[in-house]
Amino acid sequence: MTSVRPATEQDYQERLRRVLLHIDQHRAAPLCLDDLAAVACLSPFHFHRIFRAYVGEPVGRYVQRIRLETAAVQLQTTQRSVTDIALDAGYESAAGFSRAFEERFGMAPTECRKTHQLSLQVRTASLQPSQPNAMIAPEIRERPDTRVAFVRHVGPYAAVGAAWARICGFAAAHQLFGPTTAMIGIGWDDPKLTAEDRIRYDACLTVNEKFVPSREVSVQTIPGGRYAVFLHAGPYHQLITTYDAIFRDWLPRSGEQLREQPAFELYLNSPDRTPPADLRTEIWVPLQ
């Protein structure tokens, strides 16, 4: 009996990873308990208990939190109407969305947008253009769909090294590394909005269509299309400065509209062999 338990636990973890990815990709759709249980191949009766045990919060609260935190990002980075953002967050009306938003963040959506703009003026005024991460014009590139194997980390971005150790160890053991293998990071959450212990990050390696997911490693596809590609030079902990410049300085002046998917990071060199000041990271921002 004891020899079976680890495999059973890993199986549940893989099922729940599928559910979390499904929620990420279908935030605007109705996400009822029965449908999410079906994604996990579990009965609804057991699903909500297993979800809470593994994720640490009830499924309904998790879905609402992800929707509201995503909506907060849209309020701060786009000029879309509150009604449109509310509908995309799965709410039937702006009024219902506003009530839930105020309960979550302690302010109305319009106040969130206004306050953010005021703070932007302060931050922009204090920027040091001589710093190595000063904003430069991006390249606009097209890329195809990209299939990646990934390990999800939940917790502070500073602690993602464990996820990278897991996926790189798996890749080495299964001879997945090749001359074209790319290392990609997907950060689903803004650390300024999401509690540190709830931040989601996927450590990804590109794989071909022959790769089969396992209990240890899942698979997802990064959508292709138009991207604005920015080069960040320097330590990873300074990436937030470049993201701030992209979404607060470049985007409002660019005339571009974002697609409904997260940006991702393409790591051009390895922190194991490169001094922090010499690290190079491409930030790919999805555009319509």
Automatic annotation (TrEMBL):
Pfam families: GyrI-like, HTH_18. GO terms for molecular function: DNA-binding transcription factor activity; sequence-specific DNA binding. InterPro entries: AraC_E-bd (IPR010499), GyrI-like (IPR029442), Homeodomain-like_sf (IPR009057), HTH_AraC (IPR018060), HTH_AraC-typ_CS (IPR018062), Reg_factor_effector_dom_sf (IPR011256), SmbC-like (IPR050908), Tscrpt_reg_AraC-type_HTH (IPR020449). Signal peptide: none annotated. It comes from the Bacteria. PROSITE patterns: HTH_ARAC_FAMILY_1 (PS00041), HTH_ARAC_FAMILY_2 (PS01124). Residues 17-115 form the HTH araC/xylS-type domain. Keywords: DNA-binding, Transcription, Transcription regulation. PANTHER family: TRANSCRIPTIONAL REGULATOR YGIV-RELATED (PTHR40055). This is Transcriptional regulator, AraC family. It comes from Opitutus terrae (strain DSM 11246 / JCM 15787 / PB90-1). The lineage of its organism: Bacteria, Pseudomonadati, Verrucomicrobiota, Opitutia, Opitutales.
